[in-house]
Design goal:
seven-stranded mixed beta sheet; 18 helices; 33% helix; 24% strand
């Protein structure tokens, strides 16, 4: 009995703590084996916006490390242990190309947030939960509307609209949604993802074409999911959660690429909606369960790891296949979650503006996944290889002409959505050929933190973040008392600098910039 009570208390604490974590950050120790050589990691600039950690910097490196950054961002990156995590990632069996860090890189669990590694699944390549992150398929979707900025031109209208959104969107620690999932319905969500929602009349069939993977990874295996995961996920479908998740209503303030913007349905002064959420407690529990199961896999398969947080197993092993099947369930849960959230936002907007769906013109531009492993074909040398591409806080960014893109977007490349902090701006980009050749078609996923949550809270004491933002014309609502302090603008890198790096490095090209009008935080 005592042991069961201890286990229940531990799970309850994990449930609560998860809501305050950035996806991919452990609630446990952030100490990292290899700290003694951290000072020796001194990346060399080998090209504009490109830095190298040579093979041999950490014992066992199979490939080099590559970081995309300018000089100012590199100074920020040197302040934490993410460079060591890039080097450690280069030791993973089956890794090809390089262990990479995007310009928003910062310390995470296992791989850094903003990290990308790809392993050859046909040549002993591994799969790693720490290379994916706790909040599996944390991601962002961008929707356009038929409204322009004049629809919310007064402060009173903007304040009332913000209150309507906050009242109608389930958010915050332990939030529960209106979507109730019994046993059979829960399994359908895990197998079908966004398709389940659309079949239920939640959104439109066109939404699926403009969602990465059509909103569903095929072959999800609910048998690999624990009862605890199911219990945590059942009440949370259609909820925002807390931490850095948000619903943000914006307006387009600059167009960089008119032709691509028009193809994506984006125009000057248009009101847009950005939704950032993931697989909630369900995905966190899936990651936790499989990290535990893989603890013994390294010894079993003779894998030497510089960091126990990189526990992994060969992709084709029983442990690897089990995690792969469960991870796809969590990814599908997250896509359904964002689909439900978007439909909720659409309904709130129709009520507030007294408009039908045609007049509102609400349309999904695209939905991108972060924190995910995808099986993709990529050129390694002169041959195509099937790779398990781990994107840990990174966005898929496929180039023009790629067969996996929607037909209407194929001439322009994949939309790449880069949210900033709630006080600055967000960006829409499109994938480019250089990214496909150098980063396995991957780009950054946001601005990236420069302050830990604790440091942000300390710095924000005595301030009213809400009032500061309202003075700038941005209305914010949050469930948690400390959420706005943790997520204040100064906690993040300058998003325009991060975006400029991927743009000028040729990874993804700028299309449009959006400024916030109102933000709902958990």
């Amino acid at each position: 009995m005592r042991q069961r009570l201890q286990q229940a208390l531990f799970v309850a604490l994990c449930d609560k703590a998860f809501n305050y974590l950035e996806p991919g950050v452990s609630i446990f120790s952030d100490t990292l084996p290899g700290d003694s050589i951290l000072a020796e990691i001194n990346p060399e600039k080998i090209a504009p916006f490109k830095w190298e950690i040579p093979v041999g910097t950490v014992p066992g490196m199979r490939v080099h490390g590559i970081i995309y950054a300018d000089e100012a961002l590199m100074e920020d990156i040197r302040q934490d242990k993410s460079l060591l995590q890039v080097a450690n990632g280069a030791t993973l069996p089956g890794i090809v190309g390089a262990s990479m860090g995007m310009p928003d890189i910062h310390f995470g669990y296992g791989l850094p947030i903003g990290g990308v590694v790809a392993t050859d699944v046909q040549n002993d390549g591994i799969i790693s939960p720490g290379g994916t992150g706790y909040d599996i398929n944390c991601g962002v979707r961008l929707a356009g509307t038929g409204l322009d900025r004049r629809a919310l031109k007064t402060r009173d209208a903007l304040r009332r609209f913000t209150d309507s959104l906050f009242a109608g969107i389930p958010s915050g620690v332990g939030s529960k949604g209106a979507v109730k999932l019994g046993g059979t319905e829960m399994e359908k969500v895990l197998v079908k993802g966004s398709r389940w929602a659309v079949e239920k009349g939640i959104g439109d069939p066109d939404d699926l074409a403009h969602t990465e993977e059509g909103g569903c990874l095929e072959g999800a295996d609910p048998a690999q999911v624990s009862d605890r995961s199911l219990k945590r996920g059942a009440p949370q479908q259609g909820t925002l959660g807390s931490g850095n998740h948000f619903v943000e209503v914006q307006y387009v303030d600059r167009i960089f690429d008119p032709e691509a913007a028009a193809a994506f349905g984006i125009h000057q002064d248009q009101i847009t909606v950005m939704i950032h959420s993931g697989s909630r407690g369900f995905g966190h529990q899936v990651c936790t369960d499989h990290l535990e199961r893989m603890k013994s896999a390294a010894g079993k398969y003779g894998i030497e790891l510089p960091d126990r947080q990189l526990v992994c197993a060969p992709f084709r092993s029983p442990e690897g296949r089990s995690y792969w099947g469960a991870m796809k369930c969590a990814a599908n849960y997250a896509w359904a979650n964002r689909q439900c959230l978007m439909d909720r936002v659409r309904g709130i907007m129709m009520d507030f503006f007294s408009m039908g769906p045609h007049d509102l013109g609400f349309r999904l531009v695209y939905d991108v996944a972060h924190n995910i492993v995808k099986l993709e074909s990529h050129l390694v040398g002169e041959k195509e290889h099937l790779l398990a591409v781990h994107r840990k806080g990174a966005t898929r960014a496929f180039p023009p002409g790629h067969r996996d893109l929607p037909v209407d977007y194929r001439p322009f490349g994949q939309p790449v959505i880069i949210p900033g902090d709630m006080g600055t701006a967000s960006y829409l980009l499109r994938g480019m050929e250089t990214g496909m050749a150098e980063t396995f078609g991957s780009a950054c996923h946001g601005a990236g933190r420069v302050l830990s949550r604790k440091a942000a809270i300390r710095q924000a004491r005595g301030r009213s973040i809400t009032r500061e933002l309202e003075d700038r014309g941005i209305f914010v609502r949050a469930s948690g008392k400390t959420s706005l302090m943790e997520e204040m603008p100064e906690a993040y890198k300058e998003v325009s600098r991060v975006v400029e790096v991927v743009h000028r490095a040729g990874i993804a090209s700028k299309v449009a910039r959006m400024r916030p009008l109102c933000v709902i935080k958990g």
